[in-house]
Amino acid sequence: MASRGRLVVVEDDPGIAGVVDLYLRRDGFEVVVAGDGEQGLAAARVAGTVLAVVDIGLPGGVDGLEVCRRLQADPPVPVVLLTARDDELDRVLGLELGADDYITKPFSPRELVARVHAVLRRAARPATSAAVLVAGGVEVDTGRREARVAGSPVALTAREWELLAFLARNLGLALSRDQILEGAWGPGWYGDERTVDVHVRQLRAKLGDALPLTTVRGLGYRLG
Length: 224
Ligand code: CA
What we know:
With 224 residues, the chain is α/β, with parallel strands linked by helices.
């Protein structure tokens, strides 16, 4: 079977790492396991890495949250975070790290494999209709997955990028928060309508006046 791509698992618990490794290999991925954050970052930076599964609690100076943060750019690597407890998940959502999905331990390996597939499908989608869309002073380059203002790229997290690309593909349309949640990030994603507001706020902060994004009262948002 041809490899589905290189996938990095950053997990210090050998039992969990072993099971995850087994299921992902069986599913056709080439898997590299790293036991701490530094090794995980180095492994994820190797060209051809399609995704990283990252445990939050890791030994050493670089925890899973930091790994996730550093994998958001140059170029971004999609991340599925493993969280030990629900309160850890609350912390993750509060930080808005831009992780692509989360799964709380204990989890079924099949569920993890399904999440990995969903994230990869989402990451691949914009490339099918590559184009440079223009919204006000912002260029939305769906081929390069890059936003530019006055010709200069602006660093966005994976999740911010997906929101911007979805809004740009629906230029001029008033969209509800539900439509945005589902359209930008897919039906399986963990999040609620506040997530949309948080990411809109981040986009506005990063793109400033160049972004012609209007709040539509009682509904959601409209770009352009
Ligand atoms: Ca751990």
